[in-house]
Every structure is written in structure tokens, then in C-alpha cells.
């Protein structure tokens, strides 16, 4: 998705921790960070300026809108991000973490 000044956007949902925990070649459980890399890989590889603003929720988790600009266009990105946050209220909202956390098992009375 391209913005008017040549910047482009990359809407990406958050990654649940349970999707990042893997068994590395039978050596035990570990955390695979590769799903997280996609969030910043474009800017990291190209060296372009980038920033992320909240733009909603998906499956109860925050979704960020990553804005990537032309070389040395940091000021344009800040202007776009400020205008977006002024026009929306996503940056003021928080996820309901109670729906994402495992619920403790309830015990029957007398057990």
C-alpha cells in the first residue's frame, strides 16, 4: 500500500507467544523469533526510516500499521503518524488481556 509521498505501509498483526515456542530439533522448547522479524525486516534490510502506529486489533491482539519512508524522510513519517493518531483513537485503546491469558482451573467445593 502506497501513501501519497511515496511512503508505503505494512499492516501486520501481533504474534502470539504460543506460536513462537517450538522444539528445536528435539533439543527442548525454545522461542523462535522469526515470526517477529517480519515486523521490521523491510526497514532493517533497506535502511529506510520506519515507524509503527496502532491501527486496530486482530484476534484480541494489537495490530500495528508500519509506515516506511524514503531515505531521510523521517519528518514526513512523523507528520503522517501524528495526523493518523489525531484522526483515530487506536493509540488510546488497550487489549483485554483477560481473554488472552489461560484461565486457572476451578476446583469443585470439597476437593
Give me a quick take on this structure.
Helices cover 22% and strands 26% of the residues. The protein is an alpha+beta fold and 111 residues long. It has one domain.
Tally of individual domains: 1
Q: Alpha-carbon distance between the termini?
A: 58 Å
Q: Strand tally, please?
A: 5
**Low-confidence segments, ≥5 residues, pLDDT <50?**
none
Question: What are the defining features of this structure?
Answer:
two-stranded antiparallel sheet, alpha+beta, three-stranded antiparallel beta sheet, 111 residues, 3 helices
Please specify the SSE layout and strand pairing.
Blueprint: E1 8-13, E2 21-23, E3 29-31, H1 34-37, H2 41-46, E4 50-58, E5 61-68, H3 74-87
Antiparallel strand pairs: 1-5, 2-3, 4-5
Task: Explain what the structure shows.
This protein is of the alpha+beta class and 111 residues long. It has one domain (8-91). It has helices spanning 34-37, 41-46, 74-87, and strands at residues 8-13, 21-23, 29-31, 50-58, 61-68. The strands form two sheets. A three-stranded antiparallel sheet has the order 1-5-4, covered by helices on one side. A two-stranded antiparallel ribbon has the order 2-3. The longest helix is centred in the C-terminal third of the chain and has 14 residues, at 74-87. The chain is flat and about 65 Å long. The protein starts with 7 loop residues before the first strand and ends in a 24-residue tail after the last helix.
Amino acid at each position: 500500500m502506497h501513501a501519497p509521498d511515496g511512503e508505503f505501509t505494512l499492516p501486520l498483526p501481533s504474534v502470539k507467544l504460543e506460536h513462537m515456542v517450538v522444539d528445536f530439533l528435539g533439543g527442548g522448547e525454545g522461542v523462535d523469533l522469526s515470526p517477529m522479524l517480519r515486523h521490521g525486516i523491510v526497514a532493517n534490510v533497506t535502511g529506510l526510516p520506519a515507524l509503527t502506529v496502532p491501527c486496530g486489533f486482530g484476534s484480541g491482539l494489537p495490530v500495528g500499521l508500519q509506515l516506511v519512508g524514503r531515505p531521510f524522510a523521517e519528518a514526513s513519517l512523523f507528520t503522517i503518524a501524528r495526523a493518523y493518531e489525531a484522526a483515530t483513537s487506536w493509540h488510546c485503546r488497550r487489549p483485554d488481556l483477560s481473554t488472552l491469558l489461560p484461565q486457572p482451573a476451578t476446583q469443585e467445593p470439597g476437593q
